[in-house]
């Protein structure tokens, strides 16, 4: 999948920028990014993100999602300095502000 010039490879949890610099994401960060890429432009609440990203049976507080989104946002900003890809919608959740394009080669 590509978005804002970045290429995301979900199989190995990596994001690569146009200069070839790659960031390896944690499992939760990768799940978050997959959730955002599946619903570009849509506001995803903490509850939705927790359902999509946290393993059932783990007790997690909604602020933990805030920290994970912050970490993902920082990783993406390292790849595209000055570009905001994840918006915080106060009182509602978070939103990916980018067009998303699927590519078969990104699945490996």
Automatic annotation (TrEMBL):
The keyword Transport does not apply. GO terms for molecular function: DNA binding. SUPFAM superfamilies: C-terminal effector domain of the bipartite response regulators (SSF46894). Keywords: DNA-binding. The keyword DNA-binding applies. PROSITE patterns: OMPR_PHOB (PS51755). It holds the Pfam family Trans_reg_C. This is Transcriptional regulatory protein CreB.
